[in-house]
Design goal:
CATH class of one domain: Alpha Beta
Strand order of the largest sheet: 4-1-5-9-13-16
CATH topology of one domain: Rossmann fold
Number of strands: 29
Structural class: alpha+beta
CATH architecture of one domain: 3-Layer(aba) Sandwich
Number of helices: 14
Strand content: 15-25%
Radius of gyration: 27 Å
Oligomer: single chain
Length: 569
Amino acid sequence: MFFQTAARHRAWLVAACLMSVGVSMVHAEPDARYLVERPVKRLALIIANWEYSSGRLEGTDVDQATLAEQLGKLGFEVDTISNFRNQEELVNGGLNKFLNKIKEADFALIYYSGHGLSFGSENFPVPTKLPGTLRESDLLKYFVSIEEFHRKLAGQNPGISMVILDACRTYTGPKLEKSDGIEEELSKGLIKPSMRMTTNMALIYAAEPGQTATVKGKQSIFTEALVESLKSGLNEYNEVKRDVNSRVLDKSGEKQLPWYNESPTAMIWFRDSEEARRAAKTAWLNAVTRGTIDDVKRFLRMFPSSSHSIAAREWLRDNPEGTAVATSKVPPTFAALAWEGSATRIAYSDVSAHYSFANTVALAKVGGDFSVDTLQKPTRDQIANTMVASSALVTNKPVNVRSQPSSTGKVLATLPRGALLRFSGTKTDAAGQAWLEARVRFVDGPVYVEPPPAFKVISTASIGVPLVEGLIGPNPETNAVLVRELDVYKLIASAGDGYKSISWASIESGTLACKDDSGQCHQAEDLRSLRALHAESLLVQAGVDRTKITSVSDASGVPAGMVRIRFFK
């Protein structure tokens, strides 16, 4: 009720603000097929073993009961498996049934509490009945590896998959008789997995690999901390993770710390909520209305298990080359030069036949004046340097990216129309011809692109003189995925005649704190781009021409998490 009331109040304030300057909302209409909401499920399988032939394992039955109850309260559909004696009982006793429930874009979670051991490069939950000595050939009769859990989950194509193991208990396992007749002990506890986590997968251990998880009283302290955290009202994955870590450290006297192997780029909410639904819906409308492949993929990375995720997947299947997008042909960094008064007009190569300057980019750097001389026939080097200076371009047609700056270099991928290319420099081939060095998300290291062979004559543009600027913060009700809408409309109102006074708008985002290739860094980059796209969409809805908006990131003087909007007249 609170969120509905807050949303109505926010809508009234926005409408009043717009009416005060005579602005009406302008909504583009995406294809109705992609606006159908299809709720996805939250599914959990809670497995626990305690009736071991070697003796009862205390706490795991309580772990299972308390976590199953709490996840059920959060909206998960919960299945349980207890005391499986071998691989067949695990697989046919509930694992396959659970896997068959998982549909495209669902949130799937598997939890195990009990003994665990490792062999080779894999980890295994321990069945309750094992002989004193196991033949190597009989391993698959008794065990299913944790890595196999993840592989089976990935095969169902969920939006989010998570495996949680509270299996780092003290355990004396059976001996293993190898094919050469030599006996050896199976390793106790869990090791770091050899498998690579794909996007939005997480593997969580109650304690670090090789360490023992603590049971106090009737329950594991890790599972107790997890249940307490979920009960406290915390919802977003990273918030829950930080809270669980803190609780486990406190309960163990700082002797135990959970361990995570993850690749999350998503905003993961354990409980469906009004703010989560609103954030996903608004972000999807922004992405599908603008309609580039990068925008839709970015939405899916951030919201893989929302009621719009299936529509986003269908959009990508239906639009393999993207859609035609009206973007500014003016390099986005020119707005910074115009605001500082160091440039009033810019000369630039018109590359519209192959590329558009990106008006929402991830890593375009605000730099110096990169205007080029007004030559009728710019050289290949001048063209390449101009494109590099703009930092990011959107492809208007399929483009090959190569492993080397040469026409004989291996084609690593063919980028579809609408893909974002971030340029970092130029390289010359054996013939002395310039090639563009670029970065793309799915390829490690630099790739190389040949500059287009022909251009129109150099064009010039003017975007006006500075009018007004303002810093816009993230909206905390949406976990900072969106910007504060009311602040954007107040800034439009301050322009005097509303959007009619605005000849150009520049959206500038701050620098990321991280620079590595981690999932958290990619998430921060996507969040920054989603906020910029939301700001752009609000301006377009208020009447600003989309082709008169440019966006840059890593702008100086903009605090992290905020955007600066500058209007020209």
